[in-house]
Amino acid sequence: SQITTLINHKDKPKRSDKTLQAIQRVGQAVNLAVGRFVTVGEAIANENHELKEEMSVACIEARRAGETIAQLTDVASLDHPESDSHITIFTDKTGVVKAARLLLSSVTKVLVLADRVVIKQIITSRNKVLATMEQLEKVNSFQEFVQIFSQFGNEMVEFAHLTGDRQNDLKDEKKKARMAASRAVLEKCTMMLLTASKTCLRHPDCESARINKDGVFHRMRLALEQVIEIVTDSRTNGENEVAPISIYSGIKEFKNKVEGLRENLYFLSKENLSTMLEVILEHTEDFTDSAYTSHEHREHILELSKQAKMELEQLVSVWMQAQNQKTKDLMEDLEVAILKTCQCMNELKREVHSAATSLAADLLKYHTDHMVLKALKITGVEGNLEAVAEYTCKLSEQKEQLVEMCRLLRHVSGTEPLEITCIHAEDTFQVTGPQIISAAETLALHPSSKIAKENLEVFCEAWESQLSDMSMLLREINDVFEGRRGEKRVYLSLPRPGKHNANLKALKPVKLDTEEQAKIAKLGLELHLLTSDVDSEMEKWEDQENEIVQHGQGMSSMAYSMYLFTRGEGLLKTTQDLFHQAEIFATEGTKLASALQVFSDQVHDDDKPLLLVEAEKLIPMCKQLQITAKTSVQGKSATFTKVDACIQKTKNVMTLLCQLLPLCSKLLRKNRAGNGYLKPAPPWREDRIRTGTNVHAPERRAETFGITSLENHVTNMTFLESK
Q1: Is the domain of 276 the same as that of 332?
Q2: pLDDT tens digits, residue range 47-90?
Q3: Listed residue (410, 421, 418, 571) closest to 485, CA to CA
Q4: CATH number of the domain where residue 533 is located
Q5: Distance CA 125, CA 128 (A)
Q6: What is the largest CA-CA distance in the chain?
Q7: pTM flag (> 0.90)
Q8: How far apart are CA 195 and CA 451, in angstroms?
Q9: Where located (predicted)?
Q10: One domain for residues 584 and 608
């Protein structure tokens, strides 16, 4: 923008001091911006030796170009620049153009090289996850599983951060949707992997438990592979991904070609149009052949398909005549034929949409009670193998219905991202159904096993969650069809307020306008810098499983998502999402305060009073943030004030965290040898009951494995989606 201003300035005979000063300011601004940019590039070069030479050359070129622009715009002190020996933008405008080209070229090169670093980081993180998964798959003892799963949890959090940032940066909505789908699979499968592996370890000779566990590992590997395909823009074995065409996209393209005949009678052949219609009508067979399509819808679709063929025949006939003789009457006949053909296609589109969405609405309503899942849980606990077999057949039927629903919805989804979401939903039902069955069979064989019961619960929750997502997807498909696109719903991974906070009222989301976002941009940048500082402090800790580090990581990640909100990016799409995130952030801060209290009780040092003083500030700050986030407001102005307050209070907490972490790290190093603050993880036992802990609480179960609750990782850290 600044360079364009310089290049496009008008050469006037008289140049005022104000103009000269403005030009100089712009030149200096460009040079300063380049300097900051190059500093980051050089830091990346120092950390990545294989790119150091290329990156250094590009940075040197960019810096040189920035300095040249600054010199050529150094005109404010010259009364008569053209008569001075000093070369300026007025005497050598081509010099500025050359410098600008060099600058843009070198900056682009730095960005490309930096992007390669990011891709390498994601691939390296994926490889670490895969390596740990292989260890988990082969483990034979609970104690060994505890240690490895703890490592796996940390690696998954790192992978989530990297891929979440990447998803935000993707410009292609189709890739963004695919990334969201893959990360949603990883989110849900992480908890499934935990319970499925525990069940397999508890019942090593159970074939259904082994099948259940193998299915989770296989699905996670596929999801990891797809993330890498998206990041590297490649396909395994070099094949291209060819997504099946939907009826909507087919009709849209067909209508564009037909309407194009108004401008050009010769730009395509009649065979092309006929082939396009044949493909569309072939896809309508998915509806007419489906056992779940009503008789009325089936008849209407067949009638409209027949009519579409007739309208096209009439159109082709008039079109061919018009090519030979362009009379007024023929052109009018052609216009009528075009309109009738397009109208018929619109009616066909409306009919298939009605067929798909009415089926989906009926199925989702019918399955909201989850009766089959409840029956499987009851009969499994009873050890009734015969009844379990009966209900697994019913679940298989339900799965086929839902898979068919997803296939039909894909045809009418209206956008490529929604098509991908339908495909993801279809895959989820296809895979989760058999996994529920194997989990139920395991429980029926071992009815007294708490682990087997817990495992079945996790898979059933995944099924119920997908059904809930389908309701939201159906609403969005209807919004697209009716032209009221509105606020885009992110239903793959955004924390659901209703599930995690019963006190949150379902208020209408308020979206900040551009001017208001600009007001909080500065505050957001300050918050971003603080998250970087906190992350840097936590990286210095040797033990990344330390409870203080775990809570700090969660808070940093949530603060970062709030920063992204100030830029109009990330998973937090509305102010309600932001307020919900602020509440969870405050809760995590309270947990950190408790961990700090425990830590302070175990250390003895002159700095301990300072730690206590600083830690005591944390609880009231978190309570204030929680009160602010929960306070109901109405009206745009009040909402914006609340947004500003939430981000400001989050920033204050992060500032305090920046002071607490180095102090804790210092105390820990001093006291580590003496008081053994970091105790080794206790051996795992199925029936472990800690003092004051509900053994059935999922959060505490996960903490037994040495990492913060996976649900907290997923929810609080906006773990897997799109951002």
Answers
A1: yes
A2: 888 888 999 999 999 999 888 888 887 765 454 444 445 556 55
A3: 418
A4: 1.20.120.230
A5: 5
A6: 101
A7: no
A8: 7
A9: Cytoplasm
A10: yes
